[in-house]
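Q: Structure tokens for this one, please.
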Amino acid sequence: MSVFVFERIIASYWQRLTAKLMRHMLAFSLFLSKMPELCMTKLDRADIALLETVQRNNRLTSEELAEIVNLSPTACQRRLKRLRAEGVIESDVAIVSPKAAGRPVSMVVMVSLERERADIIDRFKSSVRSSREVMLGYYVTGDADFVLVVTAQDMEGYEAFTRRFFYENPDIKGFKTMVVMDRVKASFAFPIEVSDED
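A: Here is the predicted structure, written as tokens:
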């Protein structure tokens, strides 16, 4: 290989790498610009006490909540209704045992798309949202474009999923699978802290 050809290959690779880095920096700056919108709801100490409690157990009665957070049952109901309406509480769900549901196998999958075009990204996001096997899906920066948590009954079931979900999708450049050996922690509870202003 001549020096000229080698230099062109390096220049082409560097150009692609720089373009990808610029796209990720643009996406991150867009994310940062939206941070104020994401954090618009001001939470006081009572809100935080309620959220900490319902994140651990959302089946408590208003009377039980009132005892824990030192509010009246009516005040608890009113605050929870507001927190749901404002989108602070996104959903009230049950966490089901994968084994009991007959889906004991979990995978963490890193997915790379062919191109980072808005229509391709939106199409893949839509397919992630509509797939029942995908438990969690994140659009990320770094080596992969998406990180998914996928559930299956067994490895044969996961292979069938990969054929349908990845191999038949022309927008996917590649994917890397890591099989979960042990679920060490499963939680959607966020640590919530009181701001210094309160």
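A few notes: The beta strands are 105-113, 134-139, 146-152, 172-179. The helical segments are 3-33, 35-38, 45-56, 62-69, 73-85, 118-130, 155-167.
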